[in-house]
Specification:
Blueprint: E1 3-7, E2 17-18, E3 21-27, E4 33-38, E5 44-45, E6 48-50, H1 57-69, E7 71-82, E8 87-91, E9 96-98, E10 101-111, E11 119-125, H2 127-130, H3 137-148, E12 154-155
Parallel strand pairs: 2-9, 3-10, 7-12
Antiparallel strand pairs: 1-8, 3-6, 4-5, 4-11, 7-10, 8-9
């Protein structure tokens, strides 16, 4: 299913749903961040996805990361909570979702890195390399918030 992100766009469609979601900044031993090239929009992004009924937010984090990357992670903190009503995501099935995502900092504790059906590529990148990748501005904001390193999560 295709998706289009709108941020501060007066021509964006009106949101018709809001679903809790997670994303993860997963770092390796060299401090590089794991990104996946999304198959739905072609941009590099953080792994993650939506929470399902019966899950805690951390259950959703573990499930989504395992599904999308093959990795088993341990959350080490919260980077931020992102709920900007001016950021909406339009899907090809007619859903227009208002952003609501909690971004976690995570470390790898197991698993085997793999590409999922939701991505066309996956790799760890240095801070410098990330500056040259095609990312949606909302993902770049999360990465920037991570690099600030505040003990207080960003609330955006």
């Amino acid at each position: 299913m295709a998706r289009t992100d709108f941020l501060d766009d007066p021509n964006a469609p009106q949101a018709n749903t809001i679903i809790p979601a997670v994303s993860a900044i997963i770092t390796d031993s060299e401090g590089r961040i794991l990104l996946q090239r999304r198959s739905d929009n072609g941009l590099w992004g953080l792994p993650g996805g939506t929470m399902e009924i019966g899950e805690t937010i951390v259950d959703a984090l573990h499930r989504e990361i395992k599904e999308e990357t093959g990795l088993i992670i341990e959350p080490t903190g919260i980077v931020g909570i992102y709920s900007n009503p001016k950021h909406v995501i339009a899907y090809s099935d007619g859903e227009v979702r208002q952003e609501f995502s909690i971004c976690f900092a995570c470390k790898v504790i197991g698993g085997q890195l793999k590409v999922s059906d939701e991505s066309t590529g996956i790799a760890f990148f240095s801070h410098e390399e990330i500056q040259h990748l095609e990312l949606h501005s909302s993902i770049r904001q999360r990465i920037d918030d991570y690099y600030v390193g505040s003990r207080i999560p960003a609330l955006r």
